[in-house]
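Continuing from the previous page...

OK, I double-checked the sequence for Methyltransferase domain-containing protein against my notes and this is the correct one:
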Amino acid sequence: MTLADNSAGMRAVIQETVDAGILPGARVWHPDLESQPAADETFDLIVTSLVLHHVRQLEQVLRRFAEFLVPGGYLCIADLDREDGTFHAPDFDGHHGFSRSEVAAQLVGVGLSEVSVQDCTELVKDGVTYSVFPAVARRGT
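Thanks. Re-ran it with the corrected sequence; updated structure tokens here:
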């Protein structure tokens, strides 16, 4: 299992979890998917949870994910539906959620197939309810 995050603080938390034996054999990885060339890595499954709305270069990152997948591998994304900007502080410079149809089109655009975007769950933050969708796509064989 490979765990990754852009935030040094989150990587430290993940490393503490690994070091505590909660995720035996896992490694913590820090790829720069927005600007660095793709690493020589492959994965059967890539999962993101409430991550992509923080990514500025979304198409680039989705393309990298597609490159990292082995043929037949899956990308699973859980993220916010488009929201009014209240999920984060006013100075947040990421995405205020996503249109499901735009995410589906972007996944197809980077070469993935069997795209499915559905209802998933809701998060309540500061008394406001935000919907979360799962998007699943597969790299062709």
